[in-house]
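Dear Dr. H.,

I hope your travels went smoothly. While you were away I took the liberty of generating a structure for the chain from your last submission, since the lab meeting agenda had it listed for discussion. I wanted you to have the full record in hand beforehand rather than looking at slides cold. The sequence, exactly as received, is reproduced here:
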Amino acid sequence: MAASSRPTIHEVAKAAGVSISSVSRALNGNTSNPEMVARVKAAVKQVGYVPSAVAQSLKTQQTGQVAFAMEDIGNAAYLAMVREIQPLLREDGYRLLLHATGADVQDEIEVLESLAQKYVDGLILCPIRVTDRHLAALRSPAVPVVVIGQLPEEADVDNVRTDSRQGARLAVEHLYAAGARRIAFINGPADTVPGRLRHAGYQDGLHACGLEVDDSLVEFGGFQVSAGREAAQRLLARTQPDAVFAANDLIALGAMHAIRSAGRSIPEEIQVVGMDDTTLAETSFPPLTSVSLGSRDRGRLAADMLLARLHGETGPARRATVAPSLTVRESTREAAA
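The corresponding predicted structure, in token form, is as follows:
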């Protein structure tokens, strides 16, 4: 994308202290909040913003639809993103279409290539594998695209990411502080971006705590509950960990089921930490300690980036990173004195 010196709707939103969709509503007369309108008009004057005539002329040719393509619609982490994305798009007059890719690379490439048919005005894509084919298809998409997930630095596309490697390290360090010394790791597929980064973060955490890397304490499977249960069963059949870090909350729930079925108590005998800090973590028994990767924040940022492009904003690709944090619940013990 070519750089532009024109003030953008993103700058107006920042100056007014509101979202891009709020700016759009105020400028289009779709809000009854006079204070909001006054703030936006003051910000427009302050930054010297002029709406894109090209974007306005194209508005009538738009579909009014935006697609969100993700691995699994049933994953609560993606649902948290949807709960942020959909209201922002709806406020701006867009409908949100959901598409589950099953992490199939060919399916994701076809989604990107089909954008040329203009059945949507924009796309938010959440791939867990990023191939050269993805990067090629993302170079010149037919409509604006925002990617949620880790991309190579050279990728010229708007991108919202998190640091799941650091998040995995937080989980291991928490378990160590709570007295665990044989910390197992149950991961998803090793050939995925989250699988690779979370495994690296697990090893970072072990090194930071002065613990040896023991491959017998590591299991790989899928990112689903059933895969977590089966992986934990294999793990418990060969070794005795005193803690399990799972690469997402679904895996953690499956692991907790296997641990209890084996007659082991949580957290007294085996502590468990998940990742994503979904609503499932709050409602599990016992409630699950989990690393938040800011799913809601990532969804909101992605929607804002896409809306800016849909309003004609140009300029270099933007990149935003949401920091991980740990939410401690009853599946782990208090830190050792």
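Two observations you may find useful: Residues 164-293 form a domain with the Rossmann fold fold (CATH 3.40.50.2300). The two ends are 54 Å apart (CA to CA).

With kind regards,
E. W.
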